[in-house]
Amino acid sequence: MPLTVLSDSDIHSLLYSLSHDDVVHLQENLAEALHEYSTGTQETTGCCQSNQPQRIAIPATNNQTTLFMPASTSTSRGMKLVTLATTPEPNRSGSLPSITSTISHASTASSNSANSPKTPLTAESSLSNLSISTSNRTDPSITSSQSTSPLGSLTLLTASGKPYGFLAASELTAFRTALTATMIFNRRTNVHTIAVFGAGAQALWHIRLALILRGRDIHHVHIINRNFERARQLMTNIYTSKEWEGLRNANDKLDFSIVSNEYGEYNRLLKEHVRKSDAIFCCTPSTTPLFPAEHLTSTEGRKKGRYISAIGSYRHHMIELHPDILRQAVAAEHKHHHHKHADKGGVVVVDSLDACMKEAGEVKQAGLNSEQLVEIGELLMVKKAAMQEIERGGPGEVGLKRWLQAGNVIFKCVGLGLMDICVGEDLVMLARERGFGTTVEGF
Questions:
Q1: How many CA atoms within 13 Å lie on the side-chain side of 152?
Q2: Cα–Cα distance between 196 and 280 in angstroms, integer?
Q3: pTM
Q4: Coil, helix or strand at residue 98
Q5: Residue 79 and residue 81: Cα distance in Å, rounded?
Q6: 81 CB-contact burial (10 Å; exposed 0-12 / middle 13-18 / buried 19+)
């Protein structure tokens, strides 16, 4: 059997060649694998939870961690091995830092122009459909000179143990995470405005997949990042690279903004963008909440239904969403209130119940129990069955449909090796069909 080797460059070229239909196909295959993870048994599928060992973390030097992530599907076995920078644990006083205590105010700078840039963007220059606002807030909990993108590889073997794929893991990891996070997003009724926290590979792929799947429906993309320069680089890429040309030209109503905490009225802008967003993608390895809970838990914040995905924190001390946001999401509804609130499901959606109970900082700090979590693989298939019943004229799960499409939905993801194996399998097949990568015959 030939061995297909895909470097980061190969995977980048392959992923940027994907069409809307390609992405939908990959997402459907991943959803099916996650459904089998949640509901299958060893007798019925290789994707079942009992066939997915817990990952192993080994501390390395310079605040780095090496992760070993074995997994299997019905057709493949594999191991992803990656090393990534990790944020240090905070002091053990037990107190949760207040985001508002670190916010200060300075002057505001913003600009717009009618033409796309022909030269790299600078802090003083302007872009078509781009506004820039910065503030002098610095959050030391997420300040790091190291990249948090994982470096390593994914090895794929057949069920009988023959190696057939060796893939660089960096861009693959960002893609498969965003592919999972946009499953529910793609089913939302309103995605007019999205906010993305972060400006790295995860943020890039969340933006790209959101535009591939729902680009005609998206009008505003707010990139919120502590470091202006990194956000500027991402924005320059989106506005000047030929790889983004089709997406940026597909909707003339689409505009972007950068909000940085280096200068300007960060607190006001942060509140404004969070409140107005229909979807919020959190893609940072933060150890403190990215915004105050009150932005969403107050009466005003609860009027609008939002989809919120938090994928950047994956250890017990890391946290992107304030625990109060999760607590409110699972709290019992009061039947009598005087304000209009968006629907909530009474649960937080997760990729893996066991993994999130052990590793997700938001889940642990909010004190949630397993009854307050539901795995996305189980939820999506329940929704699919309900939608089919509604299409046949039956009642279906009308409340479930309304919540997933327009209510307040939180998705927490710490990552599964199964995601890498499932997406890796499909990418190897696509690479062979389309001539990407290197093939080693008779390996």
A1: 21
A2: 6
A3: 0.86
A4: coil
A5: 6
A6: middle
Confidence at residue 314, expressed as pLDDT on a 0 to 100 scale: 81
Please give the C-alpha separations between residue 88 and each of 270, 285, 286, 332, in angstroms, as whole numbers: 25, 10, 10, 35
Euclidean distance between CA atoms 53 and 48, whole angstroms:
11
Residue 99 is encoded by which pair of tokens?
A: 């985001």
Give the chain's radius of gyration (CA, Å).
21
Structural contact between residues 34 and 386, judged by C-beta atoms closer than 8 angstroms: no
Query: Residue 209 in contact with residue 293, Cβ under 8 Å?
Result: no
Q: Are 74 and 159 in contact (CB under 8 A)?
A: yes
Residue 369: which residues within 8 A CB-CB, separation 6 or more? none
Q: Tell me the pLDDT tens digit for each residue of 343-379.
A: 666 899 999 999 999 989 999 999 999 999 999 998 8
Specify whether the CB–CB gap between 168 and 5 falls below 8 A: no
Euclidean distance between CA atoms 226 and 313, whole angstroms: 16
What confidence tens digit (pLDDT) does each residue in 133-188 have?
555 444 444 443 445 678 999 999 999 999 999 999 999 999 999 999 999 999 99
Question: How far, CA to CA in Å, does 87 sit from each of 50, 177, 251, 290?
Answer: 30, 20, 38, 15
pLDDT digits (tens, 9 = 90+) for 198-208: 999 999 999 99
What residues contact residue 244 under an 8 Å CB cut-off, 6+ apart?
208, 237, 238
Query: In the numeric block, which tokens belong to residue 366?
Result: 């909010």
The alpha helices in 193-286, defined as continuous H runs, are 201-214, 228-240, 245-249, 266-276
pLDDT at residue 338 in the model:
43
Tell me the two tokens of residue 412. 């927490």
* Angle of helix 376-391 versus helix 398-406 axis, rounded to 10: 120
Exposure of 219 by Cβ count < 10 A (0-12 exposed, 13-18 middle, 19+ buried)? Answer: middle
In whole angstroms, give the CA distance from residue 96 to residue 363.
14
> Which 8-state DSSP code applies to residue 27?
H
